[in-house]
Amino acid sequence: MDASHTHRHPVFCTVVPPHLLDRAARSEDSRRADLAQRTLEHDSLLRTRRRMTTVRGITAAPGAPASDAPNRTIYDAQHRTRLPGTQVRAEGEPAGRDATVNRAYAGLGATFELFLKGFGRHSIDDAGLALDATVHYGEDYNNAFWDGRQMVFGDGDGDLFLDFTVSLDVIGHELTHGVTQHTANLEYYGQSGALNESMSDVFGSLVKQYSLEQTAEEADWLIGAGLLGPNVSGVALRSMKAPGTAYDDDELGKDPQPATMDDYVRTSRDNGGVHINSGIPNHAFYLAATELGGKAWERAGRIWYATLTGGELAPDADFADFARLSVAAAVSLYGEGGAEHQALQKAWSTVGLG
Q1: Of these residues, 122, 275, 283, 341, which one is catalytic?
Q2: Distance separating alpha carbons of residues 196 and 19, to the nearest angstrom
């Protein structure tokens, strides 16, 4: 699938969804509203640019063996928006005084390691793609994104959001958009777009769990824990364990994610609710992983990875397609009627996709 997938859908994927920033932009606090509106307008501009250009990734030299070590470069935008910025740390260089640079560097490495050690994948494209990231992007920029070729982190405003490098799963989330881009290439709209977002949440959570050596039972299953500012009532951007409970705040509203198809949200906003309805496949993964127990990347994660990269998941796949293919992957990997097969069937049935 990787080698033959020559047409790539241009992508611009942010970790903070537009509906959340929309709420902040209506705040009575003028500073909050202005910063949220500025982030929304900037994201909209970048999203439009991305649709109009072809994604050109930096690929390994033809025939060069993929390394078992990452090739990371961190840049500093110095609060401007021109990418990539000034190079401040290259692969193998020691940590410096800037904690944001150090966290970005470590997060890229942790994501590389999970995909290599957990699934035998050599970087984002499975061919040793260089991992680039820019920090200190913009002024009080309230987001982080994958633009089709690199990671970009804002510093947050210190009020609603903190530095976007503080959450390891956010780094894993955004880089996984690159993995999806180079494999199933899921279209960023409707259920296929929600699957795209869910893949990033699943593997972002697994990056954190792998780094912390956590079992499925020990994991918090939160995306963006530690990212919300001191004045926000909430614990994270999303919860895979209990979609719809990550935050309930006067300014940001209540987490709108559904956990099952009974509460599926039909909307034309946010590319058809890609950040909202992703709660359904997210919850299915959580249920399967905790049913199986142990390290989530070892069985549940392997099934999800095989489904994403196996070549049968169409770019316009819906939830039912993914459920069917993941059950087939469980049978292929572990046999029919085994614990993995049963866990998958039970998980998908629980969320309404049996």
Answers
A1: 275
A2: 18
- What DSSP character marks residue 333? H
Rounded to whole angstroms, the Cα distance separating 162 from 141 reads 10
Q: Check if the beta carbon of residue 76 is closer than 8 Å to that of residue 134.
A: yes
pLDDT of residue 13: 84
What sign results for the dihedral spanned by CA atoms 45, 46, 48, 49? positive
Instruction: Note the pLDDT of residue 264.
Output: 98
* C-alpha to C-alpha distance for 104 and 152, rounded to whole angstroms: 10
The CA–CA distances, whole Å, from 93 to 67, 68, 255, 294, 351 equal 18, 17, 40, 35, 46
Pairing of strands 144-146, 131-137: unpaired
**What pLDDT score does 8 carry?**
52
- Round to whole Å and give the CA distance between 185 and 189: 12
Question: Rg of the chain's alpha carbons, rounded to an integer?
Answer: 19
Give Cβ neighbours of residue 21 (< 8 Å, ≥ 6 apart): 36, 39, 40, 43, 142, 143
Hey, is 292 helix, strand or coil? helix
Whether 275 is catalytic is: yes
Measured CA distances, 218 to 95, 209, 226, 289, 295 (Å):
30, 9, 17, 12, 9
Q: Cα separation of 140 and 8, whole Å?
A: 31
Amino acid at the residue 167: S
Low-confidence stretches of the chain (pLDDT beneath 70): 1-11, 49-64
pLDDT number for residue 148? 86
Dihedral, CA of residue 212, residue 181, residue 2 and residue 53, to nearest 10: -140
Whether 174 is catalytic is yes
Marked catalytic residue, from 9, 122, 173, 174: 174
Burial class (CB in 10 A: 0-12, 13-18, 19+), 55: middle
Strands annotated E in the chain? 13-14, 72-76, 86-90, 131-137, 144-146, 151-154, 222-223, 238-239, 248-249, 253-254
Q: What is the pLDDT of residue 348?
A: 98
pLDDT score for 57: 39
